[in-house]
Amino acid sequence: MAVRLGFSLVLLLPLAAGDFLMVYIHLPVQVSAIGVLALCWLALSLTRAHDGHRRSYAALLLMFGASLGTAVFIGVIAGVGLKGLVVIGAVVMALVLVLAIAAAVRAQSVHLVAYMAEAEGNDPLAFLLGLQAHPLVDLAVKVDGASLDDAVLARIFAARPVLAKGDFPALGATADDHMAHLFARYDATHIVDCGCFPRQLVALSMPALQTSAQAQIELCAVQRMAALMATSARRS
What's the pLDDT at 135? Predict the structure, then answer.
């Protein structure tokens, strides 16, 4: 993803240069803001594994082309000059990108709901490890907790079944050491309890742009489903 976002600097750098040259080329708007919105959209769209480089950048070029065409159409009808066309184009492009960003966020949430709906079997560990295929998740691995005190882990995950990095429950120094060890060892952003006995944990690594409050709620729903699977398996 870092390499692909690096290519997007080809877009951002000319727009940023336009800000420094505003006085000399008489631009009526600060065009680098468009580049920032484009980077935000790329950061979301490039996390979809099924989309390649060409598809993502083709979509971005299509949005730019459609915005330019719309601006020219409106400008001709309104009879504005070149500066007016630039302003209209910037406003239309910003609106298109904001709507595209909102649509990308919704699509990722729908993807996670679909994953829960289509899950097969009743193995909670396999269910959580399957999150590896989700665009929000960079890595999903089983945690080896043999060297940790299970009683301390029980207190931790009874208080917080989905443990987020930097958001530890206040359970004392020993629990803090256990939580810090887990996150440091697996370079994770979340540790999720499978709800099994004996205890099984899964470490998840999510892109920084995706560790939102909404993502946290969705992970809690996933963990709850895994715990229900574990309960069902024990009863059967």
Answer: 67
Number of domains in the chain: 2
Whether the pTM exceeds 0.85: the reply is no
Higher pLDDT pick, 129 / 105 = 129
> Considering Cα of 189, then 137, then 118, then 130, what sign does the dihedral take?
negative
Asked if the peptide bond before residue 207 counts as cis, ω within 30 degrees of 0, the response is no
Residues 108 and 150 in one domain: no
Q: How far is residue 82's CA from residue 88's CA, in Å, rounded to a whole number?
A: 10
Residues 14, 20, 26, 32: is their CA dihedral positive or negative?
Answer: positive
Q: Which of 84, 116, 148 is the last residue of a domain?
A: 116
**Dihedral (C-alpha) 56, 59, 61, 64: value to the nearest 10 degrees?**
-130
pLDDT tens profile 155-186 = 888 888 888 887 888 888 898 898 888 888 88
Residue 124: give the domain boundaries.
120-235
Measured CA to CA, the distance from residue 27 to residue 85 in angstroms comes to: 11
Given 60, 83, 116, which residue is the final one in a domain?
116
Please indicate, yes or no, whether residues 78 and 128 belong to a single structural domain of this protein: no
210 & 226 share domain: yes
Give the pairing of strands 162-164 and 201-205: unpaired
Contacts of 234 (CB under 8 A, 6+ apart): 197
DSSP β-bridge partners for residue 168: none
